[in-house]
Design a protein that fits this description.
alpha/beta, TIM Barrel, eight-stranded parallel beta sheet, about 45% helix, about 15% strand
């Protein structure tokens, strides 16, 4: 999931085009991009599209299907769950989680709604880390429930109310690092924040590159022009894949000889490096179109 493109739930004319595009995941949005007077209509649009995807999976074009709902303490939350918990959706994106028990409550409500369908996928939860409290409790939030599949950083919501500049590199790196370690502790992935300046592709790519070096798997896109940029940054290079393959081959040979370490290109390789190499090979395969 190198790239995730937000599409407002109030703009159903954009759904098919987004799903036909190059983003790895499409996030149908019921939260920030939808005005209060359009919330009901957006829910109807999203539910109808999810039903179409379930009936005709080819429309999904192999995308991961995400719906960002409104936070649990809003008047929209229950209706959002009613609209999006159905066959056709892979992940529910929850804004501003504040406590592990809240995450468990959301998971239980998803399970209750999913039970109404004869067949419904195991819907994951992607938690937004976009408040100081959520950042402080990120590891506990990530480990709160088996349904949690990842943590997504929200830098604008995290920084701006505190008077921290959104583009302050030192702050960005610290927030990314803390989020990634919290996700690692819970065994889930970390996903990078949106980048609001659509006319600054270099800034987008540079921030995405920092996220990738810190172990994030992809970056949120708010405009189609950002999708290819994210795909390029988070796609393992041919050199990375080749080195990873050499690491795995050398480690397998060492294991057969009863050795715990090996040397590849002058570097000592043990278990953590082998784990990383396998992750690179997996990521490269997931990003390669079938056929």
């Amino acid at each position: 999931m190198r790239s995730k493109l937000f599409v407002p739930g109030s703009r159903p004319e954009l759904f098919a085009k987004a799903f036909a595009g190059p983003a790895d995941a499409i996030s149908l949005d019921l939260e920030d991009s939808v005005s209060p007077d359009q919330k009901d209509l957006a829910r109807q649009n999203v539910a109808a599209w999810l039903d179409r995807l379930h009936q005709d999976p080819a429309l999904g074009n192999g995308k991961t299907v995400i719906v960002r709902i409104n936070a649990q303490d809003t008047v929209h939350y229950q209706a959002d769950l009613d609209a999006c918990v159905r066959p056709g959706v892979d992940i529910v994106n929850l804004p501003k989680p504040l406590a592990p028990e809240q995450v468990r409550a959301v998971s239980a409500e998803i399970a209750q709604r999913a039970s109404q369908f004869a067949v419904c996928p195991n819907i994951g939860l992607l938690l937004n880390i976009e408040t100081p409290r959520a950042l402080r409790l990120a590891a506990d939030l990530a480990a709160a429930d088996p349904r949690v599949c990842g943590l997504q950083l929200g830098l604008a919501d995290l920084f701006e109310p505190a008077g921290i500049a959104r583009r302050e590199r030192a702050a960005i790196e610290q927030a990314m690092f803390l989020t990634r370690l919290a996700a690692a502790e819970a065994g889930v992935y970390a996903y990078d924040a949106a980048f609001a300046d659509i006319k600054d592709p270099q800034g987008f790519s540079e921030e995405a590159a920092v996220a990738r070096r810190l172990g994030f798997i992809g970056k949120t896109c708010i405009h189609p022009s950002q999708v290819e940029l994210a795909n390029a940054v988070f796609q393992p290079t041919a050199e990375e894949v080749a080195f990873a393959q050499r690491v795995i081959e050398a480690a397998d040979l060492a294991s057969r000889k009863g050795q715990g370490v090996c040397v590849v290109d002058g570097k000592m390789i043990d278990a953590p490096f082998v784990e990383r190499a396998r992750a690179i090979i997996t990521a490269a395969g997931a990003a390669t179109p079938a056929g």
